[in-house]
From TrEMBL:
Additional notes on this entry: SAH is a product of SAM methyltransferases and is known to be a feedback inhibitor of these enzymes. As a result of this inhibition, organisms have evolved efficient enzymes to metabolize SAH via different pathways. The pathway found in methanogens differs from the canonical pathway, it uses the deamination of S-adenosyl-L-homocysteine to form S-inosyl-L-homocysteine for the regeneration of SAM from S-adenosyl-L-homocysteine. 5'-deoxyadenosine is a radical SAM enzyme reaction product which strongly inhibits radical SAM enzymes.
Amidohydrolase-related domain segment(s): 54-400
Free-text cofactor note: Binds 1 zinc ion per subunit.
Known function: Catalyzes the deamination of three SAM-derived enzymatic products, namely 5'-deoxyadenosine, S-adenosyl-L-homocysteine, and 5'-methylthioadenosine, to produce the inosine analogs. Can also deaminate adenosine. The preferred substrate for this enzyme is 5'-deoxyadenosine, but all these substrates are efficiently deaminated. Likely functions in a S-adenosyl-L-methionine (SAM) recycling pathway from S-adenosyl-L-homocysteine (SAH) produced from SAM-dependent methylation reactions.
GO biological process: S-adenosylmethionine biosynthetic process
Taxonomic source organism: Methanolobus mangrovi
Cell membrane recorded as keyword: no
Residues binding substrate, per UniProt: E92, H184, E214, D299
Protein name (record): 5'-deoxyadenosine deaminase
EC number(s) stated in the UniProt entry for this protein: 3.5.4.41, 3.5.4.31, 3.5.4.4, 3.5.4.28
Domain of life per record: Archaea
Cross-referenced SUPFAM superfamilies: Composite domain of metallo-dependent hydrolases, Metallo-dependent hydrolases
Binding site for Zn(2+): H63, H65, H211, D299
Amino acid sequence: MADMIIKNAYILTMDPSVGDIENGVVVIENGMIKEIGTSTQCSAEKVIDAKGSVLMPGLINTHCHAGMTIFRGYADDMQLQDWLENHIWPAEAQLTDEDIYAGTRLACLEMIRSGTIAFADMYIHENKVAQAVDEAGIRAALSYGMIDFGDKEKADKELKEGSAFVKEWNGKADGRIDTMYGPHAPNTCSRDFLIRVKEQAVKDNVKIHIHVLETEAELNYMKENFGMCSIHFLKDIDFWGPDILAAHCVWLSDGDIKILAEYGVNISHNPNSNMKLASGICPVSKLLDNGANVCIGTDGCASNNNLDMFEEMRMAALLQKVSTMDPTVLPARKVLEMATINGAKALGIKSGMLKEGYNADMIIVDMNKAHLTPVYDVASHLVYAASGKDVETTIVNGKVLMEEGKVLSLDEQEVIDIAIQRSKDLILKINN
Ligand SMILES: N[C@@H](CCSC[C@H]1O[C@@H](n2cnc3c(=O)[nH]cnc32)[C@H](O)[C@@H]1O)C(=O)O
Ligand SMILES: [Zn+2]
């Protein structure tokens, strides 16, 4: 007796050896995909009739600061440095465990609702982020964000906290949580600190999540202080490898692109954040042409300002087309791969495809809508017409977190009400 069967689905397997399956069936057992095809002999505790809707791998958000939902719309329309130094960092100094817990539950609610089944996070009070993830039922690669600004004492304190988090939470929440080290960026972390972090991550056999070359300001800072850009600087300290998840990677030379591809680095492209902060345009098409693994992230809600990965896919496609003046770049299926298969590779999880033996991490998208009619090509609608609001069912690790638009793993109104209350208290503290 299997746990669950989903039937009558148009299945986007994302598996290149299978393609799409019309009127498909998926059998789920112990959190994994047991069977996929057009029929099954199995019976199950629970049967979901997809009624012709699209069943696809859930989306994977590979760069987020989930707790920052508490700052959604708090500081818009400014440059990154001003935004961080004069608004966000002073506000973050006021954040408590309960603020981050409330903000992360709100982020998990938003992600479950909009079809994200896993996300990569780098933030503070990360224990509370992990607790919220555990309760919400979503999958996540979590890191405590670390900055030392060359201060040895702060470096020791940050690495101690980052290391304790890595060990306490790795593999927890039924295996849905992986931990990483999160050195913030090459211009906020010293050379020695980055070397120590890399050594520790290799020793602990975990990955590293870092911001790289988001802005031209970082590029200029690195050239002035080290005589080279961040990519060559990190290459010089043997930092690069397939264990690295590098967010943004906007200001790259053709030589940098070759290095990132050669070392198997995972690049998280965050189009909305890069456009909103006027950071620049990541050369996604060139990175892909060089064989680099490019995935997609939203960044935090204070620089996006939502966590809708369908919107992020669409922005990635359109931004690349207009910036290269070539409408053929980043076709819909390629963008879908970035948000599923490439994201899973970046996080090292067996998700991103609907295939026997893979995690049962999937979503059902209701296409019976005016704005999704008629359907000539399902992939086209998923990237160019759909949004997270069209997701009706979200399944992670074989558990139904949302069914027919009703979230089951969180009390939606309670999560929203608490986040509102916390934001009011926070603003009072910040303004006093
Ligand atoms: N322990 C560190 C906290 C780092 S958490 C990750 C940091 O990244 C910041 N952040 C959020 N979005 C971005 C971005 O787009 N670029 C760079 N930093 C960001 C976020 O506000 C947070 O301060 C400290 O001592 O400040
Ligand atoms: Zn970020």
